[in-house]
Amino acid sequence: MGILDRVTIIVGKLVSWVSSTFHLGAGATWPGEIALILRPDVASSFARQFRKGIILIAGTNGKTTTSLMIKTVLEERGDAVVLNDTGANLLNGIVSSCIRRSDWSGQLFADVGIFEVDENSLPIVLRYMIPKRIVLLNLFRDQLDRYGEVDVIVEKWERALTKLSKDTQVILNSDDPGVASLAKSVKGKVIYFGINDRTKFLPAAEHATDSTFCPNCGARLVYDGIFFSHLGIWHCPRCDNTRPKPDVSVWPNPLPGLYNQYNTLAAVATVTSFPIPVSEVAASIAQFKPAFGRQEEIMMDGRKIKLFLSKNPAGFNASLRTVIEKKAKHFLLALNDRIPDGRDVSWIWDVDFETIPKDAIVTVSGDRLYDLALRLKYAGIDLKRLDVESTLLIAVTDALSKVPKGKTLYVLPTYSAMLDIREILTGRKIL
Amino acid sequence: MKKKKVQIAWLYPDLMSTYGDRGNVIVLQKRCEWRGIEARIVPVTLETPTSDLESCDIIFMGGAQDRQQKLAGEDFLKRKGPVVKKMVEADVPALFVCAAYQFVGRYYKPYQGEPIPGAGIWDLVTEHPGDQAKRLIGNTTAEIINPPELAGTIIVGFENHGGYTTLGPKMKPLARVIRGGGNNGRDGYEGATYKNTIGSYFHGPLLPKNPVIADWLISKVVGPLQALDDAMEHHANEVLRAHV
């Protein structure tokens, strides 16, 4: 660390202190943002300090859960880990997490950096650090107004991966054709995770399918079966492109939902590659607790509230499938259209709300509650049975009041709605 | 009533369905069914024979990502496009949104490179004005001016397009922009109409919050329609107008 780096870190720490002392709520990004303006190299200076290296996790859905699982395993082994705050997954969020963790001279004293990275930011982040592992989970359509098209992200990732040396191992989802096909751009070892259990196939394809055409030749891919969205066992009938055999395909899932099976397999593929003995990994993952808002449970007046963050069609369908399998009867759905949610709410028409049981008791809220109510009307939900409440606090209270004691209210919110609901329920936005 | 059963052709549901386009098809189907009219969605994609398309009563085609549009492009220009053109000329109602709206025109001229030919079904052209130009993106409202029987209706949506579209003399603009960019951010028009067909950049998707357009398309097949309880549709429309 040079003198300029040190000055930068002092400024960053002051920003961090001011932000938390005065509850400005920007502590996860602003210290890093300001430090990067003063001295862009500060990111590299931090990155070089991790004794065992850096793990980057990217993908549309599952970044936070996978990162936390990897962290749980490594911390259990005694590693000192730096993790960026969920959602603070641009370069400024990564640097902010390092500033908060370092001493005043910029020393980190950490073994591993585990950073979830925004899809678009992965190439930028890779300019500043050479990770030991990159985990690429999946690519679903998500906020086209912000991220652009899925194919554009695949191309960006390809270019970024090509620049890495063979020292970086890449963990890829074999069941996502676009992600699996990135292997050709990787010089280092590639480790695949995927599901082989054909009993988990969906009975019929869901609507939200992004990548059902061959990334190499453009022919329509043939699927033996689909696990969800466009993830499945696939091959191209025209060229030789076929789903790679996963290296890790079986592991007890500590959380409900097939999408968490993928997150678990990704985390296991990552930590066992270091290598960490399977027995240790098993013990850590078995006791894993979900990230906030991700299947988090809150008890209130003898009723259970389960939060399922649902921010895009694939994620929403996965949440719906999971809660309906649990025989959910009471739903609170909340749709916001703020910057973190995406301004465009058209995507709700790609969600299969038709799967909600007709006898369900549903409350809708959020900034765009009437869009959601209208979607439910066309999904066959009787509007007379639907509670449409614009004030989130009243919506939460109303929805809860309809739940008998001992039963569960399933809450499916978009990102900013999830933060608001958590604040209502726990008094805090983030744990 | 002219027809008891309505077949809705959904062109390239697996390639040209970006952000909620399915909603337009669901709305067409449900608004038939709620009136006791049987409605069937006919997915028309690369492998579908053109005869399946020809037997349909309403056509819908939506937005696409670049790669998917290229995959659909050849099939549409060579096989399905000429059939759609014939049907449009024969007064079959159709709705073209976003990429489809550009694609039925004469050409799309990217910022760099040669113009990409369109299907030439409609008299309009789209040009990308360069990488420094503003992408038209955000919640939008507009007042319908064509078809005349819908004039004055306020429509709402979300636009997200880089191409600027200019209508030729055979086309009539669908609406006058109140908030947003519309066809090109310059002439104040949004969308287009020709015979019984409508095109628009609005998604959101277009039909759920603007059900008069859905009913107009359906009525071209089955004749005058009984009214439905659209309180929720109108409410969602009005709330978004205030939100834009």
Describe this structure in words.
The complex is a heterodimer of chains A (431) and B (244). Chain A has helices at residues 3-21, 30-38, 42-47, 63-76, 91-101, 122-126, 144-147, 150-162, 177-180, 258-272, 278-286, 313-325, 369-378, 392-401, 415-426; strands at residues 53-58, 81-83, 112-117, 133-136, 169-173, 190-193, 222-228, 231-235, 294-300, 303-308, 330-334, 361-365, 386-388, 408-413. By secondary structure, chain A is α/β, with parallel strands linked by helices. Chain A has a six-stranded parallel β-sheet, sandwiched between helices. In chain A, strands 9-10-14-11-12-13 form a six-stranded mixed β-sheet. In chain A, strands 7-8 form a two-stranded antiparallel ribbon. The radius of gyration of chain A is 22 Å and the shape is globular. The two termini of chain A are 32 Å apart. In chain A, 52% of the residues are buried. The model of chain B has no long low-confidence stretch (mean pLDDT 94). Chain B has helices at 21-33, 50-54, 66-89, 99-103, 206-209, 211-222, 231-243, and strands at 5-11, 38-44, 58-61, 94-97, 107-109, 116-117, 124-127, 136-144, 154-161, 164-167, 172-179, 189-194, 197-200. The longest helix of chain B has 24 residues, at 66-89. Chain B is of the alpha/beta class and 244 residues long. Helix content of chain B is 31%, strand content 29%. The interface between A and B is medium-sized, with 30 and 37 residues.
**Spans of at least 5 consecutive residues with low confidence of chain A:** none
Number of structural units classed as domains of chain A: 2
CATH architecture of chain B: 3-Layer(aba) Sandwich
Low-confidence stretches of chain B: none
**How many helix segments of chain B?**
7
Percentage of residues in DSSP E strands of chain B:
25-35%
- As laid out across the biggest beta sheet of chain B, the strand order is 2-1-3-4-13-12-11-8-9
Mean pLDDT of chain B: 94
CATH domain class of the largest domain in chain A: Alpha Beta
Largest sheet of chain A: 6 strands, parallel
- Find the structural class of chain A using helix and strand composition: alpha/beta
**Assembly type of the shown chains?**
heterodimer
The H-and-E topology of chain B, N to C, reads as EHEHEHEHEEEEEEEEEHHH
The CATH homologous superfamily of the largest domain in chain A is named Mur-like, catalytic domain
> How many strands of chain A?
14
Task: Give the overall silhouette of chain A.
Answer: globular
